[in-house]
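PT: before anyone asks, these are the final sequences, not the draft ones from last week. 258 residues across everything. Please model them as a single complex and drop the result in this thread when it's through.
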Amino acid sequence: MRWVWIGVIVAATTAGEVMQAMGMRRHGEIRDFRPGALGRAMAVLARNRFVIGSVIAMAVSFFANIGLLSIAELSFAVPATAVTYVMETVLAKYVLKENVNRLRWAGASLVICGVALVSL
Amino acid sequence: MQTESARLRIKTWICATVVVLSNVFGNFFLKRGMPPRLNGPLEYITVLFEPWVSLGVLLLILWLLSRMALLSWADLSYVLPVTSVGYVLVALVGKVLLHEQITGRRWAGILLIVAGVALVSGGTSPQTAKIHAGSAAP
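LR: through. Structure below.
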């Protein structure tokens, strides 16, 4: 059962975080951290479809995380979901058009090995 | 230009610290307040009103908002490795505060994960995406 939760968490987290990055990139840098300005920024973001999509995906990930934490140790649950790094690195290259070089691919491979070790 | 770069670096580190700590302790409080077993969908909702779980939820909301703020100026491929130190903190919190068993193999896995994300971050500045925004990256 824990692997089902991890599958749901990985899919929802990856989709949510990539959409979050797309939405925030469209919004631009937040420079004013005063409460009023933050409130106005949140009002704008609440109409951003990528941000809305990311919040929905992260809500799914959150409830799956609760399900996983109820049956697995914290030190297993959090690192095991690190496989999202690999998925997000792939999407950062092909969807967000970021420059993903060999070092980054090697890093993603190390993460997979680490996840395997943590999970065995 | 240098002042602008320094401003962005300080802002990035402050925000990244909030992102990491809110995530680590949000997960910790969730785990602390979680009953041994959840039976049925309704319990997934009612458990949110347990005090420790509520605190965890509040911290995870802070995590979501601070991460959104960070991503408004930093690349996803920068944010991922910088916030990876959370994996080490989670292991330490699990061991020290929840008395969870962390085997040598699991420690090795955590170290590999951190090494991997450090490699991923090699040579990445917070805003590389802006450089490629105007032209197609190869």
